[in-house]
Amino acid sequence: MTSEHRPALPATPPLTERQEARRRRILHASAQLAGRGGFDAVQMREVAELSNVALGTLYRYFPSKIHLLVATMQDQLQHMHATLRKRPPTESDPGARVAQTLMRAFRAMQREPHLADAMVRALTFADRSVSPEVDTVSRLTTAIILDAMGLDSDATPEQLSAVRVIEHTWHSALITWLSGRASIAQVKIDIETVCRLIELTGPQPGLQRPE
Questions:
Q1: How confident is the model at residue 2 (pLDDT cuts 50, 70, 90)?
Q2: pTM
């Protein structure tokens, strides 16, 4: 059957309360193991044992270690986003708010470098089969940046383009820091520099577009 005639797959039903609790245990176990020993420490059998699920069940939730670690990063970003919403950045300038937000997120990663390394390596190794999970990580990062800017659906195409460049820079900064090729001070300079793009990409909140 050709792809154009293949029937659409049904939407994945939402997890039950029990399934969600199981998924949370799995993600917690993944973060625990990664936090202790990085990427190589996350073995699917050990994750299954630590989270008290059968190995076959684990693979039904996460088809591979890469899927699991990218989902772990998604989970970490969701927690980070919730924390940032409770304690939003205090700078008056949108670019400075984004820089402050990303450095707070970076320092959270810095506190658990083995976990950060495992998640970033998983993102780097991810192939097309992990695209939905990678896209979710990207959307969460975008939402964090837009929140810091004070924007949501009102972002212009130019602003969204700037956000993508900022995301790429943040990801690259994580990689260079984790590999020992950049200091925290250099990361801060790079993040603050790229966040100045926000000033060049259209109206800021409270300003009107010129006619």
A1: very low
A2: 0.84
Three-class SS of residue 155?
coil
SS3 126: coil
Using alpha carbons, list the distances in angstroms from residue 169 to 86, 88, 130, 162.
25, 22, 22, 11
Length of the chain: 211
CB atoms within 10 A of CB 173: 22
> What does the DSSP assignment read for 32-91?
HHHHHH-GGG--HHHHHHHHT--HHHHHHH-SSHHHHHHHHHHHHHHHHHHHHHHS----
Helices vs strands, H then E, count in the chain: 9, 0
134/124 Cα distance (integer angstroms): 10
* Confidence category of residue 203, pLDDT binned at 50, 70, 90: low
Tokens of residue 20, six digits: 């969600």
Confidence check: pLDDT of 126 > 60: yes
